[in-house]
Amino acid sequence: MAITPGELLLYVCSYFSLFTAIFFFITFFEDKKKLRNPKLQYFPSVSVIVPAYNEEKTITKTIQSLLKLDYPKGKLEIIVVDDGSKDSTYSSAKQFVPFGVKVFTKANSGKGDSLNFGLARISGEFVACLDADSIVERGCLKKMLGYFEDSQVMAVTPSMKIFSPTGLLQRIQAIEYLLGVYLRKVFSYLGSIHVTPGPFTIFRKSFFDLYGGYDTHNLTEDIEIALRIQSHKFHIENSMDANVWTIGPNTFSSLLRQRLRWYIGFLDNIQEYKHLFSRKYGNLGVFFLPGVFVSTALVIALLFYLVYKTLTRFYTEFLDLLAINFDIWPLLKLEFKPFFLNVDPLMVLSIISLTIATMIIYLARKYSKEQSRWTFSYFLYLVLYLPLYAFWWLLSSGYKLSGKSIAWGRKGE
């Protein structure tokens, strides 16, 4: 029996996702011995920069979490840079000056410029950046700093999670971030980390001294600096159990603005660093970066096909019911046949994919020591994430092509 174009698309999507998932699985378990964080040999000086814009509701908890870090106080410097907030962010931060926190305010100029403002005023050998709506785990620094024993490591990323998710959108993000915990560790094994997240990535200060500070005109400075590190063939590592929690957007509009900024920023940076699509950059250039575009195109095509197929089926069934005057009683007398007599290969592939996805969530929870409940959030993720993901990418592509701008602010506003 001939295969239809739609069925071909389903098979391509299924095999691509299975191949990628199995490849990542093998990579994860081959390098499982590297999951343990390297032992910290000494306590280097660390500076933490907290750029803030209209974060009066969260900045107090952010600073308190930094002050509670399990690290020698004489080796830790905390700098808050208020980027011209219109609320009480600055005064909220100023209350921590007696505890050694340095607080500055300046005219609004964006996150990148705020980070550069901080870089010009720090004294640490290493520098961490922390968004002002994030909370760090007490043992984060000690878990992450050991990776810098390798002189080629320029940045170490944490395990990023959603703080106390409530509501449909935050629950979906909680699972998305858990998957990110697993994937970022796999990407570190493959030399393919392309984002150094704002919530508490740690850098060698010397990298900024040699290659300049943050790009002040960049929508996603965390992607730009990661690709810059990769372009100089340095390493980016990840600590899977160094937990940092960030507050996810809880409204559709704020989440949409965040994703528009992320995806448009990604496209801008890919255009800037297109030379990374090369065998010279290993897995990043040959596998990961091309894979982003292939997987996104497949998701969008699959979504359109499923919508078309669903509408067509509803229309056909409506006509069939209309032909029998909506007399459905004969349809309820169909002879029962065991499901295994007519197994759809696509159903088998779907079950395998679901099993692997569930195992990935389990691994992410286990090795990042996650304790929160997840089953309902996982159900929401399975049902809603792919349509949202495709919508974000379609809209971002439209913005990119039309030249519409997105400004930096709280949660991408």
Structure in words:
This protein has 413 residues and is of the alpha/beta class. The protein has a single domain (1-413), classed as Spore Coat Polysaccharide Biosynthesis Protein SpsA, Chain A, CATH 3.90.550. The chain is 51% helix and 13% strand. The chain contains 12 helices and 8 strands. Strands 3-2-1-4-7-6-8-5 form an 8-stranded mixed beta sheet, with helices on both faces. Strand 2 (76-83), helix 3 (89-94) and strand 3 (102-106) form a beta-alpha-beta unit.
Quick recap:
The chain has one domain: Alpha-Beta Complex (Spore Coat Polysaccharide Biosynthesis Protein SpsA, Chain A), CATH 3.90.550.
Question: Can you give keywords for this protein?
Answer:
single chain; Spore Coat Polysaccharide Biosynthesis Protein SpsA, Chain A; 413 residues; 51% helix; globular; alpha/beta; 8-stranded mixed sheet
Task: Furnish the topology, listing elements before pairings.
Layout: H1 5-30, E1 46-52, H2 59-67, E2 76-83, H3 89-94, E3 102-106, H4 111-119, E4 126-129, E5 134-136, H5 140-145, E6 153-162, H6 167-189, E7 201-204, H7 205-211, H8 221-231, E8 235-246, H9 252-272, H10 282-323, H11 345-367, H12 375-402
Parallel strand pairs: 1-2, 1-4, 2-3, 6-8
Antiparallel strand pairs: 4-7, 5-8, 6-7
Helix pairs in contact: 1-6, 1-10, 1-11, 6-11, 6-12, 9-12, 10-12
Mean pLDDT: 90
Number of strands: 8
Rg, Cα atoms, Å: 24 Å
**Low-confidence runs of at least 5 consecutive residues:** 409-413
CATH class (first level) name = Alpha Beta
Strand order of the largest sheet: 3-2-1-4-7-6-8-5
- Please tell me the CATH architecture by its name: Alpha-Beta Complex
Q: Percent of residues in beta strands?
A: 5-15%
- The rough form would be described as globular
Q: What is the helix tally? A: 12
What is the helix/strand order? HEHEHEHEEHEHEHHEHHHH
When the domains are counted, the total is: 1
